[in-house]
Amino acid sequence: MFKLGLIINPLAGVGGSVALKGSDGTETAHKALELGAEPKAGIRTLQALEVLKGLELEIVTYPAEMGADIAEKSGIPYQVVGNIHSGHTTSADTLKAAKHLEELSVDLILFAGGDGTARNICEVVADHLPVLGVPAGVKIHSGVYAVTPKAAGEIVAMLIKGELVTLGDQEVRDIDEAAFRKGTVRAKYYGELLVPQEHRFLQHVKNGGKESEELVLDDIAADIIEKMDPDILYVIGSGSTVAAVMEQLGLQNTLLGVDLIKDQELIASDCTAQQLLDLTAGQPTELVITLIGGQGHIIGRGNQQLSPELLKRLGKENINVIATKTKLRELEGRPLIVDSGDPDLNHELAGVIKVTTGYHDSVLYRVADY
């Protein structure tokens, strides 16, 4: 029987919806909770485990919110080992759990978190034990994560069924959150982990750096601005491609956050998920977003302020995706990805979507349904 080690960082990604740009450190996580953020790592793990129902496996996990609670909800047989501190868990608990599960000779460690959690796993797990991440963090630059929770479950299911899945080393990277909150992306290499690689489902390491095609960005921005209706609110997503729109408008931009504008005026900066819901309630609203270079995510990486509630309210027809053709070619045919945290919404947004790639120039591009 397949023995699946399970570790959940229950506070992973908790800072995203309240615009804290991350969740590393106890102080940041506590602040996010005080601001009303709701932990989602457990829910996302359950989405992965749903794929595994009916297969021959046993989960080995740590108590309570680190795994046992979700294992119980999944209906999959499980055993609980170890112990955790009372109150909120810390990175020390993740380190201890990873080492313990390795000593128990599990077949694979499935963990939910972000880049900080991947760093913890990398610190203690030897390179002979496969691991796979369920994406639950605000920032995910590491290549050890599946593209969505469901995709993580699909990869594990392939292993349990005995299908041929290549194992290979993937980089663990993390950024300086303090610099990130000031608008600077500074990623650092921390090592590699052995990861099952099914390329439809495995996330690629994020491409760093700013888009250099300034003229193309200017054309994209001009097209978006020309079509803006003065009576519509526009939610402006994160990233350098979208920043070109704000630059042409002469407005202050939150490079790694979400802003709100109307009639080419700034209404609110660096909004939280709740602020966006409140400010757009009852108002015609559209969204302008781009994709993460090399990965293809348009929802669910660095923009958790765009809640499922907001996206459902907007509808697919009011989501404006912008990207250069160079950025799309870098995906090498891989689809765009929506990882909203709501599987039904992900399905609704799947199919094809129009991507503005220049002035009066656009293409249709596929959005994955996983």
How much is the radius of gyration in Å? 20 Å
Overall geometric form: elongated
Helix-strand pattern: EHHEHEHEHEHEHEHEHEEHEEHEHEHEE
Helix content: 25-40%
CATH topology of the largest domain: Rossmann fold
- Average per-residue pLDDT, rounded, comes to 87
Main structural class: alpha/beta
| Sequence of strands across the biggest β-sheet | 10-9-8-11-13-15-16
* Count of alpha and pi helical runs: 13
What is the top-level CATH class of the largest domain? Alpha Beta
Indicate how many domains the architecture comprises: 2
Number of strands: 16
Low-confidence region ranges:
none
Quote the beta fraction: 15-25%
CATH architecture of the largest domain: 3-Layer(aba) Sandwich
| N-to-C CA distance | 27 Å
- Major beta-sheet overview: 7 strands, mixed
Briefly say what this structure is:
By secondary structure, this protein is an alpha/beta fold. It has 13 helices and 16 strands.
Describe this structure in words.
With 370 residues, this protein is an alpha/beta fold. It has two domains: 2-197, Rossmann fold, CATH 3.40.50; 214-367. It is built from 13 helices and 16 strands. It has helices at residues 26-34, 41-50, 68-74, 91-103, 115-124, 149-160, 177-181, 214-226, 240-249, 273-280, 308-314, 325-329, 343-349, and strands at residues 2-8, 57-61, 78-80, 108-113, 131-135, 166-175, 187-197, 233-236, 259-262, 265-268, 285-289, 297-299, 319-322, 337-338, 351-358, 361-367. The chain has a seven-stranded mixed sheet with strand order 10-9-8-11-13-15-16. Strand 15 and strand 16 (361-367) form a beta hairpin. It is elongated.
